[in-house]
């Protein structure tokens, strides 16, 4: 049984999170625990000199050195935004304001973060190692191998460039999961 998506993601304000965090240009978003399993390091390497990576989620003390390496790999442009309550309108706004959502995890089952991103109209770069059983248009989703930095970069840039045209398609792909 797939997860349902809260209505707030379908109508999120893309500017609220940007204003709160002082983000003026494009950014990529990733949501989940900071650590090697979610593989933010490959995302940071891929997006260096392309756009900042905004990371939402907990960072356990054991993963603080990993977080530091992610920020360093990004050329110090990555932003660790900590955790947010998923009912906070700013949480949905973070998705809606992103140019692209990036989740190059080692494996995923059915990542609610991907569904939330699509509901917000934001296309996703997703690991090939997943169990998400949805047919998604190429304008909304590209699958990558977790350590393929060049592939992650190309997928993120391609989706970010077509984001405004793909927004309605992304939402339509998960409409049935409201």
Describe the structure.
By secondary structure, the chain is an alpha/beta fold. It is 40% helix and 12% strand. The protein contains 8 helices and 6 strands, in the order H-H-E-H-E-H-E-H-E-H-E-E-H-H. The protein has a 6-stranded parallel beta sheet, sandwiched between helices. Helix 6 links the parallel strand 4 (100-103) and strand 5 (124-127). The chain is globular and about 40 Å long. The model has no long low-confidence stretch (mean pLDDT 94).
Largest sheet: 6 strands, parallel
Strand content: 5-15%
Strand order of the largest sheet: 3-2-1-4-5-6
What's the SSE pattern?
HHEHEHEHEHEEHH
User: Distance between the terminal alpha carbons, to the nearest Å?
Assistant: 13 Å
Could you list the spans in which at least 5 consecutive residues all have pLDDT below 50?
A: none
Number of strands: 6
Helix/sheet category: alpha/beta
Q: What radius of gyration results from the CA coordinates?
A: 14 Å
* Helical residue percent band: 40-55%
